[in-house]
Structure to design on (268 residues):
């Protein structure tokens, strides 16, 4: 069952990711990106990351995508104008992409020849309780630094996006 | 049926990383370039969560939380810069933004 689920949602993630890059209208890309985030949330659940899966849905599919769609609406970004593509990029880029993908995937599969299989429900010690416990004890300093980073990002975004006062 | 190993998840992560990189390189629309950056950061997250499962330890997932936080900050700042840029020159095409070019 989890083999079927993995291949189904991996296929959805890859197809939606290709759609993000291929679509000409930004809104279509944004909706495809929501599909990628949802499929990845299911894959995190299969890997035993319950908290990460929920954070993925809430933060990515919720917050970040709303931000993107607001900006698309504000900028009134329409269809991308057709640009002249260089022949080298067209005839070297796509085969190079697939060659790199095959070489890297083959290398990864050779690197772990007899890795244990991933079973759903095998790794259960990564719930919100365990994550919170180590986030607030062992990783307290990185956690505090990240809060400062978020504060700087908020102030920076406001300063960048506000209107210049006379 | 063929069992799913961590390698399959890593291969998916490579695929998403390459698609995201292709999007950053090929697309001219800056909003879509930022979305492709999100794809790249998600590929990193798959790697971290996969190795968290492989070593049966939560540390990978904690790093994934930090990556999500940095991704949020990056998206907010990137879109803020885009709006500030749009005030100076009303376009989102990367090759038309040549304000510093003679």
């Amino acid at each position: 069952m989890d083999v079927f689920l993995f291949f189904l949602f991996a296929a959805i993630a890859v197809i939606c990711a290709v759609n993000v890059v291929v679509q000409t209208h930004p809104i279509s890309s944004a909706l495809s990106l929501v599909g990628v985030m949802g499929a990845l949330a299911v894959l995190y659940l299969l890997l035993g990351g319950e908290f990460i899966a929920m954070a993925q849905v809430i933060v990515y599919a919720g917050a970040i995508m709303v931000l993107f769609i607001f900006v698309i609406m504000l900028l009134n970004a329409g269809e991308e104008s057709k640009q002249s593509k260089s022949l080298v990029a067209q005839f070297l880029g796509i085969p190079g992409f697939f060659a790199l993908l095959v070489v890297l995937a083959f290398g990864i599969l050779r690197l772990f020849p007899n890795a244990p299989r991933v079973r759903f429900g095998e790794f259960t010690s990564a719930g919100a309780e365990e994550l919170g416990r180590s986030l607030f004890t062992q990783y307290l300093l990185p956690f505090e630094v990240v809060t400062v980073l978020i504060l700087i990002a908020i102030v920076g975004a406001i300063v960048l996006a506000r209107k210049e006062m006379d | 049926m063929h069992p799913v190993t961590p390698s399959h998840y890593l291969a998916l992560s490579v695929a998403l990383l390459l698609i995201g990189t292709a999007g950053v390189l090929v697309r001219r629309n800056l909003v879509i370039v930022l979305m492709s950056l999100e794809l790249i950061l998600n590929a990193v997250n798959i790697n971290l969560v996969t190795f968290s499962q492989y070593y049966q330890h939560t540390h990978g997932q904690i790093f994934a939380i930090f990556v999500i936080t940095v991704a949020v900050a990056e998206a907010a700042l990137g879109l803020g810069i885009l709006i500030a840029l749009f005030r100076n020159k009303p376009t989102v095409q990367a090759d038309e933004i040549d304000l510093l070019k003679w």
